[in-house]
Write a structure and sequence with these properties.
heterodimer, B: 36% helix
């Protein structure tokens, strides 16, 4: 990333202003043109540095309060197949393979966000059935100590 | 929990992915959901104020900016949970930190500009909290934070 891109991301990572011409306002502050701002954001999006440009939802505020991290013990030779099945569930927002550790045999992680814990449990059960993976945990978040976006 | 009518829900579902990158994004948004620029901006301002929208901006891919990130967890004794969580949250590089009652009970994500810095932070957290810690970096990504379906 060049200096302008870094400067721009640092400036807008906490959100653009809610005005009719938000990018013009950003442009004025950074001494650039409105077109330059829009083009640079589009380029960073295209290059994948910006994964997504849009609203971050405060899911708790709108009632999506149940948040379950499910950890799965999946045989190594089935990770590819099982990961793809899990990712296909619309209630699964994140799905990753992570390393096993001593005393920690769980290698696939899915995040499930739903309106209730029962819904999360139901989704986990469906996933288990669809993948025939039976060794899993559901870790509900009891408290959010911190949540910010990933920052530059 | 805040009350949402159909227009609020339409806005929330629409602006999570592909916010219009044009000069008047709120006008374009309004056109696509059958409202006015003024009304859409008014709704968004309220949704931000009430916490339904945290911000409208870029969600970054840390790896592509040259950084490193990981998910880690510690085993904290019941009576030390708040203290340990406080130490962890104190790092700017920690973006998420949750209590999840289980054997490993405090779960957090760390993003740092380099692998070295990431290692340093985890080591420091281990030393300062004196709790067993596991570091679980992503090996493979199958899906990431698509959108919340606001019903």
């Amino acid at each position: 990333m060049d200096e302008i891109e870094t400067q721009l991301l640092k400036f807008i990572q906490d959100g653009i202003p809610i005005t009719p011409r938000p990018f013009k306002e950003v442009a004025n502050t950074l001494g650039l043109s409105e077109e330059q701002i829009i083009d640079t954001i589009a380029k960073l999006h295209h290059d994948g540095i910006i994964r997504r440009f849009g609203a971050s939802i405060g899911h708790r505020a709108i009632g999506i309060t149940a948040n379950a991290m499910c950890t799965w013990n999946v045989p190594d030779d089935r990770v590819e197949e099982v990961g793809a099945i899990m990712a296909g569930f619309s209630d699964v927002t994140h799905c990753y393979e992570r390393p096993r550790r001593e005393g920690w045999p769980y290698n696939l992680f899915t995040m499930v966000h739903a309106y209730t814990r029962d819904e999360c449990r139901k989704v986990a059960k469906q996933i288990s059935k669809a993948t025939s993976v039976e060794d899993y945990n559901i870790l509900f978040s009891e408290k959010e100590f911190k949540k910010t976006g990933v920052r530059l | 929990m805040i009350e949402l009518d159909d227009l609020d829900k339409a806005i929330l579902n629409e602006i999570q992915v592909d916010f219009p990158l044009v000069k008047q994004p709120f006008l374009e948004l309004a056109t696509s959901i059958g409202s006015t620029e003024e009304e859409v901006m008014k709704r968004i301002e309220r949704l931000i104020k009430e916490g339904a929208i945290r911000r409208i901006g870029p969600i970054l891919n840390v790896k592509k900016t040259g950084g490193e990130s990981t998910l880690a967890a510690v085993k904290a004794p019941e009576e030390r949970i708040d203290e340990v969580a406080g130490i962890i949250s104190g790092y700017d590089e920690v973006s998420h930190n949750y209590l999840r009652p289980a054997e490993y009970n405090i779960w957090f994500t760390v993003s740092a500009p380099s692998k070295e810095r990431l290692g340093e932070i985890l080591e420091e957290i281990g030393e300062r909290t004196k709790c067993p810690l596991i570091d679980l970096p992503t090996l493979r990504l199958f899906k990431i934070g698509v959108k919340f379906n606001v019903k």
